[in-house]
Amino acid sequence: MAHKLPALLLAACAILLALDAPLVAGDPDMLQDFCVADYKSLEGPLRVNGFPCKPEVNVTADDFFFGGLANAADVYSGNPTGSAVTAADVEVLPGLNTLGVSMARVDYAPWGGLSPPHVHPRATEILVVVEGALEVGFVTAANRLFGRTLSRGEAFVFPRGLVHFQRSVGGAAAVAISAFDSQLPGTQEAAAALFGASPAVPTEVLAKAFQVDGGVVESIKAKFPPK
Predict the structure, then answer these.
(1) Backbone angles phi, psi at 25, to 5 degrees
(2) Which residue has the higher pLDDT, 179 or 39?
């Protein structure tokens, strides 16, 4: 029995770690009713994972309000992909600080308006189509594509950290609303990350990875100037 005790302890620790994994993976839990983000604190030397709390006496109802999701974004002017995102995250809605949720509106031009392949490193996304139709999909770590076409009122889930995309179908503009389990999910577009990084990813690395000539890589890089 004495020899079995270390194994039992290891198993118990493994179970506890597995049960605690969702808490570790998501945004930290709040410790009070709310913690409205104090943007002015960023002007000082203090840096935290998120935002410090605004003094409660200075909090107003406006800290919990954002009207931007009602407005359609321009998907035509200087927009090569034909889509535009309006985020409702902690950077524009301070009342979201520590609450672990956010939303976004995405507008798509007709005939193939595209949210290019991208990932959200800190959140799972659930998307619902409000207008039009979308072709959507995500790719697993085993390079398997899960996708389908969504009509108005239908929803699809994109697991945290997996590459995914959305594209409008047909001659009508499309609108979708997404929800995330993070106050700031982050977005990293695959093409921009590889071809528009600063400093640049070496051309030789990309040429070998994509099995193309270096001239092809340089041509693509020219389309993604570093921000």
Answers:
(1) -75, -30
(2) 179
